[in-house]
Amino acid sequence: MTDASSSPAPVTLPYGEWPSTITAEQLAVGGNRVSAPSLVGRHLWWTEGIAAEAGRQAIVRTASPVTASSDGAAETVTVLPAPYNARSRVHEYGGSSWLAFDDGGDAPLILFVNFADQRIHRFREGEDPTPLSPIGETVASAGGPSLRWAQPIHVHGPDGDEVWWICEDHTRGSGIERYVASVPLDGSAADDAARVRQVTPSSRFVAHPRVSPDGARMAWISWEHPQMPWDGTQLHVGRLEAGVVVEDTVADGDTETSVLQPEWRDAERLIYLCDRTGWWNPWTLTVGADPEPVLPAGEAAAQEFAGPLWQLGQRWLTPLDADTALVVHGTAVDRLGVLDIPTGTVTQLDLPHTLITGVVHREDGLLAFAGMSPQHFSGVHAAELVRPSAGDGDWRVDGVHTVRSSRDDAPDPGLLPVPEPITVTSEEGQDIHAVLYRPRNTGAQAPEGERPPFIAQVHGGPTGQAAVGLSLAIAYYTSRGIGVVDINYGGSTGFGRAYRERLKGQWGVVDVEDTAAVMRHLEREGIADGRRLGIEGGSAGGWTTLACLTRTDVFAAGVSSFGVADAVALAQDTHDFESRYLDGLIGRYPEDEHIYVERAPLNHVDSLSCPVLLLQGDEDPIVPPNQAEMFRDALAAKGIPHAYLLFEGEQHGFRKAENIIAALEASLSFYGQVFGFEPPGVPRLELTR
């Protein structure tokens, strides 16, 4: 063992020039996105995005059965063969895209949506997948196949085993419709669309289908334009006959109440999540009666038990039995607890994780979930959930361990930052939430008196939240001596409906003011060098980035990834799910076009004087390339230093390893040129005027 006193003294170098072994290549190919755990038989399954294979979404399982007493990382088997890609395009953001279950065969039956053609396929491990759903024609307005599928559920229907899907249908003359449909498992619908049975009435948007234990009823949620699912949804309870809803009753929800994730407690009772009190809290409903809140009023209710439904299949409730459920809850960070429904009490489980999704549970006590913590990279984790026994009234977890980490190449702990949730008070007295990551590298230090450059990271959405946890992308900066602050500006989730609605009609105003206020706070407190402040964000975060650059004098540089520059162009050219999103964020279009024009960063380039880097995918259907190109042209017309990188074959977010590397290194070189440091080992980005 080496004595700490013998460790080499840290080198003294300017912020931004600290040596780091965290490379862009490591971020791009050294890890995989892991999510959506599922328990199939005795194995644990999940989805894994493989950057080295063009970012395809593979279905993966443990090589050996997993028990509640298992421990440590597991050997894995990639079940879905290349080049198949289990990724849905429903709402463009997709979500739950596969299902595996035991149907009595030699191996589980696996169904998935293939990204290239959006058809449902079936196979067993070792076989070649074959299509189940009809071929959807390519529709120009849809930017791809006309039939898309997501969020499968396994049910016992009129013909025995059935799988019901949410169908996004672009073929009907009335416009885009979405509904729950049954697709035969025998493949007969692959060449005959008439074999698909529509289960629910059509709505503009549908989510969370659930069939009661006795098969007599079905619950689901829907919403219509201009609502988004965090604005207002309706909870439907329908009676089923021959696998079709014959009576449809709206049991809860309206245009100003968001209802999410109904789950059946038994054949007559539901538990679900609703923000009627200003927070997404659990509620119960007995069919034919009025809804009732589960939690007692007061402090226990002032936290979120759900989040924004950006992807179909997101879950926050995991029923254990009729009277108990696992719940993900919290504000700035996630916690996992056990909810006793009759009393409304929540027993918090002792887990280190601060972001928790996709919780699943098995009768033998195996608990699995995806998530991360300040000490753990994102991954699939497992533990034993121990029920209270006689004389022991507390639920607990034992043997918490990581089954599959998103990273097998964990860097030196001395290069990893420590997240610090902070709250900044604006001049108007409004609390603004953020997560601070100071520069950290135990092998380096800055010259005495120098303050670090800082980058504001602005999450997308804008209805979203900055996660608190270990991020190698953030460590890429902080290990080199560049601070990062991840900002939950007004409009972010996690802090109640009133905080979300601070952005109502104020996108491009409140988010800009809050971001600037956090950065001024860092400068005022001596945490950051006020002359070297940068900002970056993607999608809606790109809008806030460009708006901050054109409307404030706080920042010296900005990086926009597939960001919105022109609100009018977005309103005219975006996809269906978000085509009325701007009604709530800015105003109705075209009635309020003057507000759209005034807010757009593109129309305020004359106020901009600092360099800008624009990163864009050429196949992005959500924020098309013309947004970045209009801003690029405006920068060039004014002679502002800039660079524009267009990545071939990328959509809304970069998945190919070579493009991830290029984007990261370009950003670091860009900041170095603007902030006056030379990051070692990074190609120099050429800026033009």
Topology:
Elements: E1 11-12, H1 24-29, E2 33-40, E3 43-50, E4 56-62, E5 76-78, E6 98-101, E7 109-113, E8 120-123, E9 130-131, E10 138-139, E11 144-145, E12 147-157, E13 160-169, E14 177-182, E15 197-198, E16 205-211, E17 217-223, E18 234-241, E19 244-252, E20 259-264, E21 269-274, E22 281-286, E23 292-293, E24 317-321, E25 324-330, E26 334-340, E27 345-348, E28 355-361, E29 366-372, E30 379-386, E31 396-405, E32 420-425, E33 431-437, E34 444-445, E35 454-458, H2 472-478, E36 483-488, H3 497-500, H4 510-524, E37 533-538, H5 540-551, E38 557-561, H6 567-573, H7 581-585, H8 593-599, E39 612-617, H9 626-638, E40 642-647, H10 657-675
Parallel strand pairs: 1-34, 35-36, 35-37, 37-38, 38-39, 39-40
Antiparallel strand pairs: 2-3, 3-4, 4-5, 6-7, 7-8, 8-9, 10-11, 12-13, 13-14, 14-15, 16-17, 17-18, 18-19, 20-21, 21-22, 22-23, 24-25, 25-26, 26-27, 28-29, 29-30, 30-31, 32-33, 33-36
Low-confidence stretches: 1-5
Overall spatial form: globular
Q: Report on the biggest sheet.
A: 8 strands, mixed
Please tally the helical runs, counting DSSP H or I stretches of 4 or more residues: 10
**Percent in strands:** 25-35%
User: How far apart lie the N and C ends?
Assistant: 55 Å
By secondary-structure content and strand pairing, the structural class works out as alpha+beta
Averaged pLDDT:
93
Strand order of the largest sheet: 32-33-36-35-37-38-39-40
Proportion in helices: 10-25%
Rg (CA only): 25 Å
